Amino acid sequence: MRVFHGFDALPHFTHPAVTVGSYDGVHSGHLALLRTLADTARAQGGESVVLTFEPHPRITLGKAEGLRLLTSLEEKTCLLERQGIDNLIVIPFDRAFSSLSPDEFIRSYLVQRVGAEALVVGFNHRFGRDKQGCYDYLGSHGFGLRVVEVGECDVDAEKVSSTVIRRLVAQGDMARAARLLAHPYLVIGTAERNRIRTDEPLKLLPPPGEYDVHIGGIPARLSVGAAQELIIRDGCPDGRAVLTF
Questions:
Q1: What is the pLDDT of residue 50?
Q2: What's the CA gap between 245 and 209, in Å, rounded?
C-alpha cells in the first residue's frame, strides 16, 4: 500500500475509487465499506484510495475532551494495508481544511487532485464544513462521481461503531471488542525492558488488570498498570512491538 501525506505530491491514480473518513479502529463496519471500495475499484479497472485525517478532526475543532482513539495512525495504516487497500492519503486536518464547504472538498480535492471516479460512503457519512454534505447532497450536485452507499453493519444484532467499541475497551471487555472489530485489538509501540510505550497519547488502553495477549504472534501475559503502563510478564525483546488482545 502506498501512503501519501497531503495532496501536493500525488501521482496519477488509475480510475480511482475513493472513500473518506477517520476510520478509527478499522472495525467490521469499516471493513464492509472497504470491501465495497475494493470491489468498486476492481470493477472499473482502477485503484482503491482511502483518505483519512491526522489529527482526528475533534482535536482540530477543539472537541477532544474525553476523546480516546482505538488506533494510532500507524495502527490504522497497518490495518488498512491488511485489507488490500492500494493507496492511503493522510489529510493534515487543520482549521483551513475544516472550513472547506462540501462543494470545495469534492471539486478541488477528490475530483481535481485525486481524480476520483467513484466515491464509496457509509449510510451516515457527512462531510465538509459543519457536516453539510451527505449522500443526498452528492447525488444532487452533479460532480460526475458514481456514488455507492454502504448500509449499517451489525454483529450479533449489535450496532457496530467506534463509540461502542471504545466503551467495550474501556470496560476491559476485549473479547467483545474484538468481535465487533472483526480482528484483535491492536497496540503498536516500543518495548524496552519488558515495558511497552505507545506513541499516541490518546490511545485507548483497557483498564488496569492482567490480560492474555500476543506479542509478535507469541502468547504472553500483559499487566496494565494504574498509570496505563504496559508490562509483559513473560518478557519481550526491545524494539518495535506489535501487541494484540
A1: 98
A2: 13
- Cell match 463509540: residue? 163
Percent residues over pLDDT 90 in the chain: 75
- Count CB neighbours of 165 within 10 A: 25
CA 129 to chain centre: 21
CATH, range 2-155: 3.40.50.620
**pTM reported for the whole predicted model:** 0.91
Q: How long, in residues, is the chain?
A: 245
Q: Looking at residues 138-154, what average pLDDT do you find?
A: 73
Kindly list the distances between the CA atom of residue 86 and the CA atoms of 46, 66, 103, 110, 225, in Å, as whole numbers in the listed order: 10, 33, 26, 16, 38
In this predicted structure, what is the pLDDT of residue 74? 97
Helical packing angle, 174-181 and 162-171, nearest 10°? 160
Inter-residue contact 117 to 15 (CB < 8 Å): yes
Beta 17-20 vs 48-54: how paired, if at all? parallel
